[in-house]
Amino acid sequence: MATAKAPKSRKVPRIIDRPMSFCPGCGHGIIIRLIAECLEELGQDENVIFGIGVGCSSLLGGGLETDRLHCSHGRAGAVCTAMKRVNPDNLVISYQGDGDAYSIGIGETTSAAYRNERFTTFVVNNTNYGMTGGQMSNTTMPGQKTTTSVYGRDCDTTGLPIRFPEIVASQFENAAYVARGSVSTPANINRTKIYIKKALQAQISGEGYSLVEILSSCPTNWGMNAPDAMKHLEQVVTPQFPLGEFKNKEGK
Ligand SMILES: Cc1ncc(C[n+]2csc(CCOP(=O)(O)OP(=O)(O)O)c2C)c(N)n1
Ligand code: SF4
Ligand SMILES: [Mg+2]
C-alpha cells in the first residue's frame, strides 16, 4: 500500500520567536513568514529595520525579533525614507496595509516611490481596513460591502480600486522593482516569495526603490470562513488586481 509522503519541513526562521495573533485564515502571518525566510536566506535578518504601519500589520511587531519602528498611520514611507538615508547600510522595509499605504498614507507612499528612495515597501492588500472593523479603503472591490459602504462600493462616487504598483511601474522610471503577489494558493505563495526576495535584492544592490503588493485574505471582515476567503481571494479579488512582475530594472 502506498504511504503518503511527509511534507518537506521548512525551518521556522530564527526571528519568528513567538506566536502571532492574527485571526485564523488571515494572510498576514503567511506573508510575514515569507519575509522572514527571505531575510534569513539573504543573511539580512540581523541587519533589517522595519517601519511598521498601523493596522493588523502592526502585529508584525509582536511576532518578529528584529529592529523596528512603529510609525504613525500612513507615515511609514516618510519614516523609512529617513531611516534609510541615515542608515544606508541597513536593510529598511516598510510593512503596511492597503489603508495605511494607499489611503491615509498615499502621499508618503507616492513621494517615496517617485523620489526612488532606496528602501522596500510591502503592502498587504486585503481590500479593507481590517483592524478597525472593515471600513472601505482605496482598494475595496466594486460593489464590496464594508461598514462604510453598506450597500456595496459605488465606484461612480468613490473611484475605482487603485492599482498602485502599476502606477509606480509605469510612471516612476527610476524605481527598481515592482510586483504583485498573492497568498491564495501554494503556487502563488511560492511565487510571492520570489518577488519578495527580488525586491530585497534590488535594495541590497543599491538599485533603487522596490514595492511588492500582496493580495491577502481577511476572513473576519469579509464574513467568510478561512477556505472560502482564500477561494474569494483567488476567484474574485485577483481578476481586479493582476499578479506578476511589473518592473525589474536589473532583469534578474
Ligand atoms: C491617524 C489615524 N487615523 C485613523 C486610525 C485608525 N486606524 C487604525 S488601523 C486603520 C486602518 C488599517 O487598515 P489597513 O492599513 O488596510 O491594515 P489592515 O488592518 O487591513 O491590515 C485605521 C483607519 C489611526 N490609528 N490613526
Ligand atoms: S481583521 Fe482581517 S487582517 Fe486583521 S487579523 Fe483578522 S483577518 Fe487578518
Ligand atoms: Mg487592509
From TrEMBL:
The name on file for this protein is: 2-oxoglutarate ferredoxin oxidoreductase subunit beta
Phylogenetic placement of the source organism: Bacteria, Bacillati, Bacillota, Clostridia, Peptostreptococcales
InterPro entries assigned to the protein according to its UniProt record, in alphabetical order: 2-oxoacid:Fd_oxidoreductase (IPR051457), THDP-binding (IPR029061), TPP_enzyme_TPP-bd (IPR011766)
- GO annotation terms (biological process): cellular respiration
The alphabetical list of record keywords is:
Oxidoreductase
Q: Name one GO molecular function term.
A: thiamine pyrophosphate binding
Q: Describe the location of the Thiamine pyrophosphate enzyme TPP-binding domain by residue ranges.
A: 66-214
